[in-house]
Amino acid sequence: MVSKTKRPEIESSALPAISGLKLDQLVDYLPCYVSIQDPNLQIIFVNANFKRDFGDGVGKKCHTVYKCSEDICPNCPVQKTFQDRRPHIADETVQLANGKICQILIQTSPIVNADGDVWAVIEMATNITRVKKKQKELASLGQSIALLSHGIKNILEGLQGGAYVVDEGFKDKDFEMARKGWNIVNKNIFDITDVVQNILYSSKDRPLKYERVSPAQLARDSLALFRDKAASLNVELKPKINNAIPKVRLDIASIRRMLNNLIWNALEACLHDGQKNHHAVSVKTDFHDDGHFMFEVADNGVGMDPDTQRNIYEEFFSTKGSSGTGLGLAVVEKVVNRHGGRIEVTSAPGKGTCFTTIFKIT
Q1: How do residues 50-106 score in pLDDT, each as one tens digit?
Q2: What count of other Cβ atoms lies within 10 Å of the Cβ of residue 203?
Q3: Cα-based angle 196, 206, 136 (whole degrees, multiple of 5)
């Protein structure tokens, strides 16, 4: 620690006038937080931007103002500048006076007196919270593209494999082999179509096109789409449809996408559960109360723990490894929100999952 030498006071009256403005007034115009600290890390001067976001701070320790802590920050750049008389840079997470957490980039420089001693350190800090957020989003985007690419690659390889089996079947006039190959092709066509439709829906907010439609009919349409697939997975599909629900105003295409994602998600939950001999997925449409109706999709598959449930609506979050894109439930939530509805989920590991989407009868 440097010796405490006499230092000049930081007063407005002592700062020279520049083009009609005093130096401290010019500092107030800087687009960053400026503070000056003594060897005890006590703040002796702040600019207007600092006061606006952190409060006055003068007379207080910098770590008290920044982090509401009595402890000096590890690798404190101000302390380092006092020790080696050199500028330093640091990246810190701090708390604003309004309680918000933000990240700042700190740059420090020594202030020396006439004897060449460091009597104070000037610290300039820039709020880089938005920059950090964008960096995180870009990193997440890169990971998401890699995940999607891997998933699509697996589907394309499945298509190639199925096409090869079909070709060999026709070459040998073995139509049973050709049929098996076509089943593989058909499955992968379904998968790639599902992925592409979810990407399109999640990447673009098209205007909703409301039409009067029967919720019971929408449920029956989705059940019909998955009947063969459920049979191939040895999963029983159980329709529980109340035909008394009146026609309501919905965007048919997006509600179909929602139902398809929920049913396919339930089928996959059964597929990944090796603990039961019999798996079933029920699709229910009924009144929720006098003013609302609901779609409910329930399975007795693998279920989810609380940590998984907290993340299921995040785009590209998947528990299926390379076989999942993590878009299905994110699209479900988006559809429900855009219709002004709400979604509820109950689940437990080994017990299965139930998704309930609730909408107004309009």
Answers
A1: 999 999 999 999 999 999 989 998 889 999 999 999 999 999 999 999 999 999 999
A2: 9
A3: 65
- By DSSP bridging, strand 101-112 and strand 21-22 are unpaired
* 53 found inside a domain: yes
Question: Does residue 163 fall inside a structural domain?
Answer: yes
Same domain, 167 and 230: no
Residue type present at position 357: T
Exposed, middle or buried, 46 (CB in 10 Å: 0-12/13-18/19+)?
A: buried
Q: How far apart are CA 32 and CA 125, in angstroms?
A: 6
Highest mean pLDDT among 96-110, 219-233, 309-323: 96-110
pTM value is 0.53
Q: What letter represents residue 311's amino acid?
A: N
Cα–Cα distances (Å) from 254 to 272, 285, 337, 338, in that order, read 27, 17, 11, 10
What CA–CA distance (Å, rounded) separates 21 from 68? 34
Query: Under 8 Å CB-to-CB from 51, ≥6 apart: which residues?
Result: 57
The answer to whether residue 90 is domain-embedded is yes
In what helix (H) or strand (E) does residue 236 lie, and over which residues does it extend?
strand 235-241
Domain co-membership, 218 together with 314: yes
303: left (phi over 0), alpha (psi -120 to 50) or beta: left
Give the number of other Cβ atoms within 10 Å of residue 274's Cβ: 6
In the chain, the number of structural domains is 3
Phi, psi values for residue 288, rounded to 5°: -95, -45
